[in-house]
Request: fold
Amino acid sequence: MGIELVIFIAAILFGIFMYWRESNGNGAYRFLNKMVNSKELQMKANNPKGFVYKQSLLPRIIFVVSLVLLAALIIEFLTPIAVFSSYNGVSAFASFAVGTLLGTYIASFVIKSSEVIEEQSESLEDKFDDVVEKGKDFLEDLKNKDNKAVEEAKKEIENEPKTIMNEKSARERLKDKGLM
Reply:
């Protein structure tokens, strides 16, 4: 189980590296596209799509599995390592394919989130400055309103005892209604 875990982690790193390289340039994909497709069907010059970069799930799986299968066949026939003749070899092949695919999605998430953070960083700074200014204004208003509110409360307290004296207490109102 230990070697499979090492292979899986190495495959994740390989997938991240492969996605990052294709996000910087897609020369190999563009060359293959020119070789396979006619002039009308070739991709546009500004299209950033690659083998795994900006691809949907199925083409990405097909490319990763075929790449790993090609590497496994080369290892099988050029070295004494038997990849497909034992459970461990097939398990390592599957771990590498899944790890590479997972690495491409991790890299996609990181690249997209860094783009969003870069776009939002300026607006976040502006929003933060606005919040700080509003907070300062709010504190100043509280300081000014506290003095006014205290004065108004004192005036109301002076006026309330006069109105309370004229009103009957709850006990007296209940007695008037005949409930007590």
Q: What stands out?
A: The two ends are 86 Å apart (CA to CA). The mean pLDDT is 78. DSSP finds five helices and no strands in the chain. Helices lie at 2-24, 27-36, 57-78, 87-166, 170-177.
